[in-house]
User: What shape does this take?
Amino acid sequence: LAKTTQPISMDSYEGQEVNITCSHNNIATNDYITWYQQFPSQGPRFIIQGYKTKVTNEVASLFIPADRKSSTLSLPRVSLSDTAVYYCLVGDNEDTGRRALTFGSGTRLQVQP
Amino acid sequence: EPEVTQTPSHQVTQMGQEVILRCVPISNHLYFYWYRQILGQKVEFLVSFYNNEISEKSEIFDDQFSVERPDGSNFTLKIRSTKLEDSAMYFCASSETDNSGNTIYFGEGSWLTVV
Assistant: This one.
């Protein structure tokens, strides 16, 4: 079973707000939700992490409903430089018993001028 | 902001040769990881390391791979006899703990090309 499910790709325009939703129906009680950004040929870069409700930092907001079965990364007023792949990850992997992060395919965000 | 640094940024090697990729994790971090990403594919977990021993490894991390922390700052990944399919970007990462709420920080990667 996939740990997380995200849209494969999204398109947006500069200045718009972008919301990327990730589903994690089997999230465990101890799992946090973490989002990473990756540019081509670079390492994943931590964006934001949360456990429940809403978290905001200088880059993004993360909305987590009460059941925690999904989360939404919100990027306000995107620019061309936000074009990247965005990964949603949850913590412990109960399927494999592995504690290290498991990356999915991510969401490829393309921002147009 | 502290960061994970990796060397070399790019290495080309002949099939069958040994390769060592080096990493300097963030100084107060205790958990270290290697991931790899074949061009156009997902980021894949290879191995995690804590207290001078492997704590987890994936099915990719076979006998051709080894990790070592030779001194107090470096963390290395060795591939003994490289194969064409080892061509990938290798990312080192580190974290303070391995708890679910802990953040893993990644380096910029080492591009390995096996010819």
